[in-house]
Amino acid sequence: MTERTVVVGAALLDAGRLLAARRSAPPELAGRWELPGGKVEPGETPEAALVRELREELGVETEVGDRIPGEWPLRVPYVLQVWTVRLLPGSPDPKPLQDHDELRWLSRDELWDVPWLDQDIPAVREVATRLLAS
Ligand SMILES: Nc1nc2c([nH]c(=O)n2[C@H]2C[C@H](O)[C@@H](COP(=O)(O)OP(=O)(O)OP(=O)(O)O)O2)c(=O)[nH]1
């Protein structure tokens, strides 16, 4: 049986815009943009992992909504799953506290202005199709 580890990514939406985060590490990913999130730990639900990762990485309090259908391979053994997420009322604004050095809220028109990680592009395309008004 093949081991696989789910990496959860947030489609964090606010006022019709998507939050993109620029990775600061590791060197092979630094400078490229991704959906913030991280690995689901053993015994943890994907939703709990997202809330934890977003609190650690961005300092925000969030509520997880629906999963975007699909699953995208990262380097073995990781696969990316994406969930819609919104900021809870009163949450601080996101800040690049850990793993990232810049954040941007992207409107649909701006979505491809940042160099996403190659492996995130199909997931971002799916988010755009489903969630961002054209
Ligand atoms: N979070 C996130 N990771 C991604 C995306 N695309 C992508 O290839 N990855 C890779 C980068 C990492 O190798 C892995 C997730 O690692 P991570 O560093 O974000 O997760 P983590 O906080 O749980 O990691 P760790 O430092 O505890 O090991 O998946 C993405 O959109 N979001």
From TrEMBL:
It holds the Pfam family NUDIX. Keywords: DNA damage, DNA repair, DNA replication, Hydrolase, Magnesium, Metal-binding, Mutator protein. One of its GO terms (molecular function) is 8-oxo-dGDP phosphatase activity. Its cofactor is Mg(2+). SUPFAM superfamilies: Nudix. Belongs to the Nudix hydrolase family. It comes from Streptomyces aquilus. Residues 3-133 form the Nudix hydrolase domain. This is 8-oxo-dGTP diphosphatase. It comes from the Bacteria. InterPro entries: MutT-like, Nudix_hydrolase, NUDIX_hydrolase-like_dom_sf, NUDIX_hydrolase_CS, NUDIX_hydrolase_dom. Its EC number is 3.6.1.55. GO terms for biological process: DNA repair; DNA replication. CDD domains: NUDIX_MutT_NudA_like. It catalyses: 8-oxo-dGTP + H2O = 8-oxo-dGMP + diphosphate + H(+).
